Amino acid sequence: MTKIAFSEQAKNFPVNELKKWFEKNKRPLPWRDNPTPYSVWVSEVMLQQTRAEVVVNYFTQWMKKFPTIESLALAEEEDVIKLWEGLGYYSRARHLLEGARMVMNEFNGHIPDDAISLGQIRGLGPYTIHAILAFAFKRRAAAVDGNVLRVLSRMFLIETSIDLESTRTWISRIAQALLPHKSPEVIAEALIELGACICKKKPKCDLCPVRRSCGAWRENKQLVLPVRHARKKIVFLHRLVAIILYQGSLLVEKRGPKQMMAGLYEFPYSEIESEEALQDIEGFTKKMELYIGSTLQLYGALQEQRHAFTNHKVRLFSLIFTATSLPKLGELHLLSQIDLLAFSSGHKKIKDALLTYLNDAGKKSYRSVDEESCFFSIDKYYSFDGD
C-alpha cells in the first residue's frame, strides 16, 4: 500500500468500533488498575517474551515485595533475581534494578514524563518508553509491540518485513496517526489487545471488530502477513543432569558473571550427543565423580524436563545420586532451604520435580540403588528421539 493510499484509509479506520470492542472485552489484568509510571514499567518489562497469563502472578508478587521504585532501588540483586525466578531472560530484572537506582540517583526518585529523559534510563527501549507515556501519563504516544506490528501490517497490507527498521518506523507512524486526541491511551492499548487476543499468528477474523477495514482480510492474506526475515535455526541441546545429595544437602553451582545464566543456580550437567551417551549411566557417573571429587551412588531418576531460551530447545535428563564424602566443588545447601535460591528456568523445573519426588518417594531414608531398581525406569522416561 502506498503512503497516499494509507493516508486515505487511515482517515476511515473504525476507531470507535475498536474502542467499544476493547472496553467490552479487555482482559482484567492487574497492571491496568490505576496504572502508575512504575507499575507500567514493571509490567511491560515482564511482558517482553512472556505471555500475560504467566505475568499476572509475577507482577502481583513483585508489587507486594517492591511496591515503589524506592523499595526496588534499595533491594539486593539476589532478592530481585529470586522474585523473577521462572520468568527467564534475567537481564530484564537486572535492568529494572539498575534503572530504579538510576531514577533515585539522577531523577530524585521521579520517573520522568518525557521520551528523551526516559531514554537515559537503563533498559528502557522505544516501546517501553511509549507505553509509560501512553498508559501512565495518558500521552498521545503509540506503543508499538509485536502485536501492533502484526495488526497494522495486516490492516494496511504492508508487505515489507517488519524486521526492517524502515517498516517499523512506518507502522509506528500509522499507529500514531490512529490515536485520537481524547483518551489516546485507550486506542493505544486496544491495538495491543486486538493483536494479543484476536489478530494472532492464526487470526480469529470472525471475531475481529474491524475486519471490514482490514486489507489482509479482504485479500485473504492473513496467514502470509506480517512478513518476517528468516528466523535463526533452532538449536537442540540434550543434557544429563546430576542431582547430588549429601547428608541432607544438595549440591548446586552458581553461574559466574560472564557465564550464561549469570548469577543463577544450576545443577552440574554434561552435554550429550547420542542415544549411547544418554544410556551410559556408568560413564556419566564416573565423569561426575571426577568433577566433584567424591564417589557417587545412584539413587533415582526424574522425568525429563524441557526448556527453551532464545533459539535453543533443551531436553534435561536428571539422575539423582548420593555422595559418599564431602564434594570438593560446588555449593551445598540444605534441602529445607533450597527454595531460597534463584535457579535458571530449566533447572527450577528440575528442582521442583526433585522436591516432589523426594516427598513422594518416601519419607524414606536415603538409600542407594542400582540402575535396574531405580524408582523410575531410565529406559521408560529417557529417549534421545524427537525434539
Automatic annotation (TrEMBL):
CDD domains registered for this protein in UniProt: ENDO3c
Top-rank taxon: Bacteria
Domain HhH-GPD: residue ranges: 46-197
Cross-referenced Pfam families: HhH-GPD, NUDIX_4
Gene, per the UniProt record: mutY
Example of a GO MF term: 4 iron, 4 sulfur cluster binding
Record EC number: 3.2.2.31
Cofactor(s) in the UniProt record: [4Fe-4S] cluster
Catalytic activity: Hydrolyzes free adenine bases from 7,8-dihydro-8-oxoguanine:adenine mismatched double-stranded DNA, leaving an apurinic site
Gene3D superfamilies named in the record: Helix-hairpin-Helix base-excision DNA repair enzymes (C-terminal) (1.10.1670.10), Hypothetical protein, domain 2 (1.10.340.30), Nucleoside Triphosphate Pyrophosphohydrolase (3.90.79.10)
Signal peptide positions (record): none
Name used for this protein in its record: Adenine DNA glycosylase
